[in-house]
Amino acid sequence: MGTVTSTATSAMPTPLLHASPAVGFEQPFEMLEACHERVKRSLDLLQRLGAHLDAYGADTQAAAAARDVLRYFDIAGPLHHEDEERHVLPRLRASGHGALAERLQADHTALSAAWQEWRTVLEGVCAGRWDIRAAGRVRAGWREFETRYEAHIAIEEAVAFPSAAHGLPADTLAAMGHEMASRRRSPPQPATTPGTPA
User: How many Å separate Cα 62 from the centre of its chain?
Assistant: First the structure.
């Protein structure tokens, strides 16, 4: 029996992943860093979900956590990557940091591709499915996904954001924040997951 469906329960509180950060879009680079904190919380929830699945299977708490992770990486994650591709990477290229910009763009592509595999597993969890035969591979993949994201975030915060923000006038920062906010007024909808209303 490779797939476990469990009705056992355990305390696995999920963080409020979609609360508005303390900073606003009038501070766009601070907003990008606040989004990184939400990425980290979502990645932490993914790891805790893996441990919960090993102990309890795909119960209702696991399904709720899986839906939270899906919502973040289906909606907010792509918007965040687009922020960087519109406003950070072009400034890096223009300021002589082209190699860094290409590395970060490649990271986005690789992370997005990895997410497509893991979202399929999470959709299964939402439907009460967890294949214990694949658990080791999946959890190792989730750890690698987290490690890659953390390395990506670290170079952005240490080098990319300071370089891109250097010397930007207030009106340019305001326009950047306005564009970021405008795209979020009608964010893309996530793919429908089993047990989730369309």
Answer: 18
Six-digit token pair at 85? 């591709």
Q: Which residues pair with 3 in a beta bridge?
A: 131
For the chain, how many residues are written?
A: 198
Q: How far apart are CA 171 and CA 154, in angstroms?
A: 27
- Distance, in Å, from the CA atom of 120 to the CA atom of 124, rounded to the nearest integer, reads 6
What is d(CA 166, CA 163) in angstroms, rounded to the nearest whole number?
A: 5
125 and 49 Cβ atoms separated by less than 8 Å: yes
Query: Which tens digits make up the pLDDT trace of 14-71?
Result: 443 444 455 689 899 999 999 999 999 999 999 999 999 999 999 999 999 999 999 9
Domain residue ranges of the chain, discontinuous segments joined by +: 28-183
* CATH number belonging to domain 28-183: 1.20.120.520
CB 61 within 8 A of CB 125: no
Per-residue pLDDT tens over the stretch 103-112? 999 999 999 9
pLDDT of residue 41: 97
